Amino acid sequence: MTTSIVRATCPHDCPDTCALLVTVEDGVAVQVKGDPDHPTTAGVLCTKVSKYTERTYHKDRLLHPMKRVGRKGEGRFERITWEEALDAIASRLKDIAARNPQAVVPYSYAGTMGLVQGESMAARFFHKLGASLLDRTICASAGGEGYKYTIGARIGTDVEQFQNAKLILIWGGNPIASNLHFWMRAQEAKRRGAKLIAIDPYRSLTAEKCHQHIALLPGTDSALALGMMHVLIAEDLLDKEYVEQHTLGFDQLKQRAAEWTPERTAQTCGITAEEVVQLAREYGGAAKRGEPVAIRVNYGVQRVHGGGMAVRNIACLPGLVGAWRHAAGGIQLSSSDTFPKNPHALQRPDLLQQQPRTINMSTIGDALLRDSSPEFGPKIEALIVYNSNPVAVAPESPKVAQGFAREDLFTVVLEHFQTDTADYADIVLPATTQLEHVDIHSTYGHLYMMANNAAIAPLGEAKANTEVFRLLAARMGFDDPCFRESDDEIAAQAFKRNDVRAVHFDWDSLKRKGWQKLNAPDAPFANGGFPTPSGKCEFYSEQMKAAGLDPLPTYIPPHESVASNPALGKKYPLAMISPPARNFLNSTFVNVQSLRDTEGEPHLDMHPSDASERGIDDGNMVRIFNDRGSYVAKVRVTDKARRGLVVGLSIWWKKFAADGKNANEVTSQQLTDMGKAPTFYDVLVQVEKA
Ligand code: SF4
After folding, report:
1. Which of 251, 351, 449, 653 is least enclosed, having the fewest CB within 10 Å?
2. Alpha carbon of 209 to those of 204, 328, 637: distances in Å?
3. What separation in Å is there between the alpha carbon of 387 and the centre of ligand 1?
4. Phi, psi of 441, deg, nearest 5
5. Three-class SS of residue 311?
6. pTM greater than 0.90 (yes/no)
7. For ligand 1, is residue 683 a contact (CB within 6 Å)?
C-alpha cells in the first residue's frame, strides 16, 4: 500500500480558507485533516469539511455527462459522452453567438473560491465569446462598497491579533457556524479577560456564548452605529489626536451624530437607550484606557436595503476612538484587498472585442423572464452555470425557477451533484472536487496565500472547470495561446510577483509548502495611510456624494419593515432572516447525509408570544408566506428569535424539503443601497399553521 499526505486548501465560501492535509492510500483519499502547523487553521476543521471524503465519494456524485430527457426541473437525464456534450454545447453557443453573443450569460459564484477553477479559463472563454458579463453581487458587494468608502479597501485587523483585544464586538455574524477560526481567537481573548458582545437580531450559537447580546431589529445596524457615535462624541470618548490627524469630516459627522440620541436610536433599533449608551461607553471607555478594541463585522448586516451604509457607518467607529493604533484594534470585514491578485492575467478582459452588457446575478429571476429590448439587450438564450446553485440560492425563487423552466433557454450546469439547478439543465457536466484538481487561493479572513494540490485522480469522467472551458474554446475555434495554458501556468500568474505584499511569490514553492503569509503590517492604519482618495478614514466621502449617496453616515430604513412600510407590515407583520445553518455552507453539503441528519429538517424559529398569538405550538408545521410565495417548515418556539422576528436557518435544497421549496420563496429581488446586492434579510412575512 502506498500512502501519501497531500497539501490542499478548503475551497468553500468561508473566510477561514483552511490548510488541509489529505491522506491518500493507493489513490484513494481516506482522511482530510486541518494542518496543525498553519497558524489560523491550527489543525481544526469545521464539521462540514471534516466530512470531505464522504462528500467526495458520495454515491450521488455526477460521474459522466448527461442530457435531459424529462421536463425541465423534473431531473430525468441520460448518459452521453463528453464528445456529444461538448459538440452540442459548442454548436448551440455558435448558433446564438452568430445572432448576438450577449444572449449567452455565465452564472457562477463561490462554489469554489479557487482563483483557477473560479474565474480564469471560464472568464477568458466568455470574454472571447463576447457573452454578457455577470455582476457577482450575491454575497458581499454592498458591505465591500460601504467599507471602501470609509477605509479605502477591504483591509483590516489580522484575525491572528483578535486574541489580544480587550473588547470584541461581533457584529452581524455567527462565527461558530461560519468563521470558526476567528471564534477560536475570540475564545482565547475571552480566556485572557476580554469582553465579547454580539450584535445580531437572533440569539445565535455565538450570541449565546458572548457576555452580552444586543438583539436589534434587522436592518437597523447603521442606526446603532450612529447612536454609538452620538454617545462617543457627547461623552468625549474620542481619540482627538487620531481624529485630527487621520480622519476626514469630523465636524460634519458631529452634526449628523447629534441627531441620533440614544432614545431615537433605541426606538429605531428596537432596543433600550441604556443598551446604546452602555455599548458606546464600553467601546469608547476601553479605547480611552488604551486597550485594544476590535470589531468583527460580518456580511449579515449588509443583506438589507441600507446594508452598504451600515458597514460604512460601523467602519467609522475605530477611527473615532483611535482603535487602529493597536494591532489588535480596528475592524475586520474582509482581508481580500490585502492580496496582490492579478485578475487581468487570470481573466484576460483584453479578449473582449467590445464592452458587453452586465447582468446582475441577484436579479437573475427577473432577467430570465425579460424579452429583448433596447435597454435590456437580447433575451437570455443560454445560461452556463458553474460553482453555483441559483435555483436554491438566488432571491425570489419562484421567478428564478420560472426563468429556468423556459423551454427556449439552453442551460448547461457544471456540478458535483444533481442540485436543484442541475434539474433544470439541458446538459449536466461532471465537475472535479477540490481533491481532484489544482488551485491557488487568496482568502477573505486571513493573510496567507494558499495552494491546493490534486490529491487524487478525477472520479469517473469528471473534469476540472478549466478543462471544460479549454475544450469548449477549441471547439469554438478560439486559438489564443491563453486557452492552452495549464492550471499550473494559470496559478503561477495569480499574484503579482513583484508586489511587496507577496514578496518572493513562487507557485512551485507555494505548492510544496502549502501556504505563505503576506508581507502586511500588523497594525495597518496605526499611522493613518488609508487607501481612500484623501488618505484618511473618511467620515465624509466626496466619492459617495458623486455617486448620489449621502456623503455622511446616515440611516437607510429597510425596504420591508413594520416601521418603514406600515401598510405591508399590517399584512405581513414578521421580519424574517435566513442565516446559514451550522452544517451547511450556503447550499453546499445539504446532500451529505450525516450533516443533513444533524440539521434535521427545515425549521422556523419563532418567539413564544408570536407563536401563541397565532395558535402555533412547538413542532407544528407552518406556512411562511408573503406576496412573492410561501414554503413550509417545522416551528421551534424559542426566544432565540426576538419578538417580531422569525428565523429560517438555510440554505436547504428545495428537493429535500417537504413541499419542494425553501426560504428563498419569500425573499425579494430588491437591491441594497450600494453594490446592487440582494436583501435576503429585509423581508416581511406572515406565518400560519400549515
Ligand atoms: S468551511 Fe471554513 S472552517 Fe470549514 S474547513 Fe473550510 S475554511 Fe475551514
Report:
1. 251
2. 9, 21, 20
3. 17
4. -130, 140
5. helix
6. yes
7. no
